[in-house]
Amino acid sequence: MGILIKNGRFIDPASGTDDRLDIFISEDKIKDIGKNLTAAPGDDVIDAKGALVLPGLIDIHVHFREPGREDVETIIGGSMVAAKSGFTSVCTMPNTKPVIDNQALVRFIIMEAAKGPINVFPTANISKGGKGEEISEMGELVRGGAVAFTDDGQPVTNSILMRRALEYSRMFNVPIIAHSEDKLLVDEGLMNEGLNSNKLGLSGIPCEAEEVMIARDIILTRLAKGRLHVCHVSAAGSVELIRRGKADGISVSCETAPHYFALNDDAVEEHLSMAKMNPPLRSEHDRKEIIRGLKDGTIEVIATDHAPHALFEKMQEMEYAPFGIIGLETAVPLIITELVRNNNFSYIEAFSKVTCNPSRILNLGKGELKIGGMADVVIINPDEKIIVDEKFLISKCKNTPFIGKELYGSIEYTICNGKVVYKREQA
Amino acid sequence: MNSLNRKDLLDIKSLSSDEIMLICDTAKYFKDVFTRDVKSVPVLRGKTVCTLFYEPSTRTRLSFEMAAKLLSANTINVPVTTSSVVKGESLIDTVRTLEAMKADYIVMRHGASLAPHFLSKNIKASVINGGDGYHSHPTQALLDTYSILEKRGSLKGLHIGIIGDIKHSRVARSDIIAFTKLGAKVTLCGPSTLLPDEFRQYGVEITYDLDKLLPELDVINMLRIQRERQKGSLFPSIREYNLLYSLTEERFAKCKPEIIVMHPGPMNRGIELDDVVADCPNSIINEQVTNGVAVRMAIFYLLAGGTPLSDADTEGN
After folding, report:
1. Is A188 exposed, middle or buried (CB count within 10 Å of its CB: 0-12, 13-18, 19+)?
2. Structurally, how many domains does chain B consist of?
């Protein structure tokens, strides 16, 4: 009683394989990979002709809002959205209410997620209460299951605290995920500072507010001999700083989000608060440099920064609406449309950013297809057109600037730990 | 060109130069109407105009209210500080309430840029922008344009200076667009912290030296300086601002004799300009207020679907 996936284009970025191979799944493991595998009676057969067969995708930056804002999203609800979007593993950000700064809360997330369809790896706060004053009990948190530390949503302004966090986390071999932003430079900014913010009369957030903090964090990582992962990189200058940091042998990795390679700040005038996120959409130059950074490997991860907000919160003046957009459901279509189709990324290049690379950085032990490995698999039809509309989006919150967009790439099946957790209904 | 053919007036950018001229030509007739003895006309009879001002304003709100009343509309001012807004009702809910009471026109001033644009996408009533954040103040730009046209007949080739806190000024952003659309040369002048380089995208000149600029100008528009800005280190003191950018009597002596002096109000006398300059014959600051009513009457008239007026329309009635 297994599942045989036949006739698909097997792509495993970890081993660099792109071939016609079938996969046989039994229980929760991949039992066999090979050409022309045959099914035994009682096996389910999935015909993946014309489709890509990939490792279940990994998104290391999501906000599932539980505990605290269960009206907006929950761990189980968010997990179902992830499964529908091709993701079998996610990392939740700890800026919930209360924040995740003790072992009990880490375990709560893991227990809650166990009822859901996919693997959820919690991250925990760098500082107690997320206040940026004292480091949290990192040893306890790691033992509870935290895979990284971050005060995401807020930067660690205090440089000595950042140094200590980088030093202390080193002994558990988990990275510090930096939300790099100089709050004083951001001031009252609402969108990228530039020609568009000037035209629209909206206070600007300069790229430099991100860059100065990334520069500081890289320098502190050198001092602390720690491991730094910079999240949601949006600016050209940031990519260059990280490129240089890597060349200098400093242990720094980074991620960007699909909206930073798919949109620029021209989108703000049309979408207003639905295009408001932090960091903001940048200029076309920045967008192109983000794509270059993805291409040359400086940016090794794509993570969505999936940030649901209630409609009533977003249906406000730009100034009062919260920062953030949802990202899970549009992630694969944007990767295929913008990176593979428009910028000639190979599937291996593009999907390494949501499989083996994030797994390696956070030691998740996921994101590859191998015999004996856990059966996390996604089947994607890259040529199928989807329209991002109210019907397509199953997320409780629909705060996205991609509404109405036509994109390529539909998720056909998501299999997590050997179980089909999502199957697209044929129109 | 027979009417504005749109639901809302949100910004200057979305008006063509022909449409700006149509509004100014129409305003000329309405100025004749309301400066005579029997002032009102029945253009908006039976219609309801609500003014919703989330920022303090005297002249703009009064001017809209007067314009609407002169056109025979029912006008309601929503006192934002006493309505449910203070109980935390959202903008969209407040306006939907007005809409449920069948308001036809919502005139709004709001401290948040693009608030009227957000509103216009979500309600059916006509939205007229009475100023949004740093973004736009279209009726001010139109009345400024009208006021210059009235004196000079055309903006083509005129050199207009806009002086002061350009960065935080919706008046500057709107004036720049209106003036350049009609062929004027615009130079911006103020401290570099209040005059970012991004303004060059409008095809204007930028200078920090008022004394050098003054003798070249045909029109000077002095913007109001907000004292709060000094706290953000955007300039060191009111005293230094005064020394560098105030239109003093001595500086005024360097101007062309026929220069037009403007100010959108309310003035900080002694800071942006000296009393003597504010009240001199070159100053059209009070005339701007009168013209504001005429321009807003024209805007209501044209948004209501009115067609261009000829001399006969006003003289007979």
Report:
1. exposed
2. 2
Both B65 and B181 in one domain: the answer is no
Q: Are residues B83 and B196 in the same domain?
A: no
CA A80-A86-A89 angle, to 5 degrees, is 70
The torsion angle over the Cα atoms of residues A37, A43, A47 and A53, rounded to 10 degrees, is -70
Q: Which residues of chain B have pLDDT under 50?
A: 1, 312, 315-317
**Active-site residue list of A:** 305
Which of B92, B110, B113 would you mutate first to test chain A, the one with the most A CBs within 10 A? B113
Predicted ipTM of the assembly = 0.90
Closest CA to B225 of B261, B195, B260: B195
Q: For B183-234, what is each residue's pLDDT tens digit?
A: 999 999 999 999 999 999 999 999 999 999 999 999 999 999 987 777 778 9
Q: Tens of pLDDT along A196-216?
A: 999 999 999 999 999 999 999
Mark yes or no for CB contact A194/B198 under 8 Å.
yes
Which residue of chain A comes nearest to B94, CA vs CA? A316
pLDDT score, position A52: 98
How far A296 CA lies from chain B's nearest CA (Å)? 32
What pLDDT, on a 0 to 100 scale, did the predictor assign at position B317?
A: 41
Per-residue pLDDT at B228: 72
Q: Which pLDDT tens digit goes with each residue over A150-175?
A: 999 999 999 999 999 999 999 999 99
pLDDT of B84 reads 62
Q: What is the CATH number of the domain that holds B30?
A: 3.40.50.1370
pLDDT band at A1 (very low <50, low <70, confident <90, very high): confident
Asked whether residue B172 falls in the same domain as residue B263, the answer is: yes
B110 and chain A: CB distance < 8 Å anywhere?
Answer: yes
> How far apart, in Å, do the first and last CA atoms of chain B sit?
24
Asked if B213 and B145 sit in the same domain, the reply is yes
Radius of gyration of chain A (CA): 21
- Range(s) of the domain holding residue B241: 138-288
Half-sphere CA count of B80, side-chain side, radius 13 A: 19
Closest CA to A93 of A307, A309, A354, A362: A307
| B10: in domain | no
HSE (side-chain half, CA atoms, 13 Å) at B108: 32
Tell how many helices (H) and how many strands (E) occur in chain B: 12, 9
- Which domains are present in chain A? 2-53+373-387+408-423 (2.30.40.10), 56-361 (3.20.20.140)
